[in-house]
Amino acid sequence: MTPRQQSILVGAVVTGILSTSYLGLLNTICCLGVIVGGIVTTQQYAAYSPGAIASGDGAVLGASAGAVGAVLSALFDVGLRPLGLDSQSVQQTVQEQLMQNMGGQGMSPEMMQQMQGDAPGLLSAMGIALLLLNVVVFAIFGAIGGALGTTLFGGEDAGGAAPGQVVEAEAVDE
Description:
- By secondary structure, the protein is mostly helical.
- The protein has helices at 3-18, 32-48, 55-80, 87-102, 109-115, 125-153.
- The protein has six helices and no strands.
- Helix 1 (3-18) packs antiparallel against helix 2 (32-48), helix 2 crosses helix 3 (55-80) and helix 3 crosses helix 6 (125-153).
- The radius of gyration is 21 Å and the shape is elongated.
- 33% of the residues are buried.
């Protein structure tokens, strides 16, 4: 496995874990779990890369990790379903607690029942559509995380000097 593939896999696992169960609530804050996965991907790649990483490369790494992380998140959810720790169960628990706290104020019984309805399964048409939507959204936010990771861990900027490096300038005679 190449360092690039290994970095994408590590970032995808981080994204998948941070997007599952109670940790999935992090994604309510601008997909924070996915962005962190993109940053981890770039950090991992920077550790193996001898030179600077272009921000475009970081964005591609983060997007790849985000897309794979969306699929891993769905698989983790399926594995956690028997324990009641999948995203659907967590979301339903949170909704039930909110409805108990509100006491049904301003909600008709039909609205309350609709809020408690089951989410589509992974293999249903709606489940596959939601998975594809997650792949696209996770890729976008993973790219943002990858670009941020490049800024943080990508090494020297294009045309810049590494810390402690002496830069010589030419004098221009007019």
